[in-house]
Amino acid sequence: MELTTIALYVIAVSAVTIIPGPTMLLALSNGAQGGMRLALFGIAGAALSDLLLIGAVALGLGGVLLASEKLFLVVKWGGVIYLMYLAWKLWKASAQPVGVPTSKSTPLDEKSAFKRSLFVALSNPKGLLFFSAFLPQFINTNSNVLSQYFTLAVITALIDIALMSAYAISGYFSMRYFSSQALLWLNRISACTLGGIGLALTFYRRNDLQ
Q1: Fewer Cβ atoms within 10 Å of its own Cβ: the N or the C terminal residue of the chain?
Q2: Which residues of 157-166 are buried (b: 16+ CB within 10 A; e: fewer)?
Q3: Is the pLDDT of residue 5 over 80?
């Protein structure tokens, strides 16, 4: 791929990704609740979702989702339910700063952080539809298409890792120096935002990106 194409893609994806979405909010929450090790596992799950989603687009699965109303509805409502579940879990999470143990609830472990970031990205049809509409603009059909999709997938994952790390670091350092009440408010603000994203997803239609 040409360097100008890559540069334009980096700018465009960064502008879209920096807006707080579910995986960014999870990185912030993971950094605040469990520290950077926990946050890194969640970030790895979200980065893997980028590779899987763009791989699916390269194989034409985005077009299948656009063409099938039933499949779209199954994925969409699965995403809504999962986002609402995560919102409820964050709302109910115990308010303890980083490094302060609590016996009131089972702390989130690395495996769970990885899986929930992966699933929240994969269960949202907007990601697959967005990549299906967005990525072809940067693909040169006269060159090796699969290698170009691979390059864009890696770039997308690296951008996500960088931005999510910034969210996680801000959550980690903020909550090291603030009270459990601040963590409670962070959890509930994140929970409300995730719930709002889930609610907005119920109004999403297949043709929104067509």
Answers
A1: C
A2: bebbbebbbe
A3: yes
